[in-house]
Amino acid sequence: MWNLGARHAPHLSLFLICFLLVNSEILFCGGNPAGIVISLCVVAVWCFLEERYVPAGILCLAVSLAIKPHDAGLVWIYFLLAGGVYRKRALQSLLVTAAFAGLTFLWVTPIAPHWIEELRSNLSAISAPGGLNEPGPASFSGRKASMVIDLQAVVSVFRDDARIYNPVSYLICGSLLLVWLVRTLWLRFSQAGAWIALAAVVPLTMLVTYHRPWDAKLLLLAIPACALLWAEGGLIRWVALLVTAAGIVSTADIPLVILSIFSSHLQVGTAGIPGQILTLVLMQPVPLILLAMGIFYLWVYLRRDFSRVAASDRG
Fold first, then answer.
1. What does the alpha-carbon distance between residue 148 and residue 146 come to, in Å, rounded to a whole number?
2. Do residues 82 and 48 make contact, with C-beta atoms less than 8 angstroms apart?
């Protein structure tokens, strides 16, 4: 990503990437597969958009999809909708993913024939009220550095009921994603358009369903778009830097540890709207920051005319 961002803003790209990478200790200590998934997804994006080592990119995206489809899924959908050779790459990756999944199914099922039921039981237990993956205020990891960062965590502060916060979150994220999908389908492909599109969809990926801060390392894909807007100058460069830096900093290890220590000693009442808003700002700001970042880049994606850029790319 620095290789791409450096074409427009090398120092800015270097600073953002270094800050993101140096705040990856929890990812390595926990051994979460997000480290592998995000790395492979980022490599695949570079291979596809640079049109270099394409077979390696197809393999990387396929493995990424097989391990954590809720991390790489919307990135894959972008290439599927972009059309042309990129749709071909997406379908090739899906074919390899299906092969991996089929072989794994045939391997695991004879050894553990009830693995599907056991997996569902596991997910149900850890997603129950007060469970490890439950996004509500009573979650086991609600105020820790490993907090859940999806939009459900925000809505649950106002109404801690899965029948409420799930539909509301899906409605908000679904509306934004629908606009993004339509724009991608109608837009002629260009390099600049691709980076803005990815910068818009990555934070929305974190919000639509269960994710934790280590999954947000996928924000690496937003850095070339930030560098692109920074090189344009004007007010938009500062807004791009603000929202991108805020997204990276708010999901980084050290700031999250500081936030968890700070919020663990706070007792904020949530009986009224002011108390609930204060709870979000002081204890659960990450989803709001990611939402602001996604809306900003989606606004840029909708407002920009990339046809002239596409013609320049073809030339």
1. 7
2. no
In a domain, 140, yes or no: no
Same-domain status, 171 and 266:
yes
- Which structure tokens are listed for 22? 């140096």
Instruction: Say if residue 190 is in the same domain as residue 315.
Output: yes
- CB atoms closer than 10 angstroms to residue 261: 12
pLDDT digits (tens, 9 = 90+) for 113-128: 888 899 888 888 887 7
Q: What's the predicted TM-score (pTM) here?
A: 0.88
What angle do helix axes 69-82 and 54-67 make, rounded to 10 degrees? Answer: 140
Can you state the percent helix, strand and coil of the chain, rounding each to 5? 75, 0, 25
Domain housing 180? 10-24+145-315
Q: What is the DSSP letter of 209?
A: S
125 C-beta neighbours (distance < 10 Å), count = 11
Considering its fold, how many domains does the chain have in total? 2
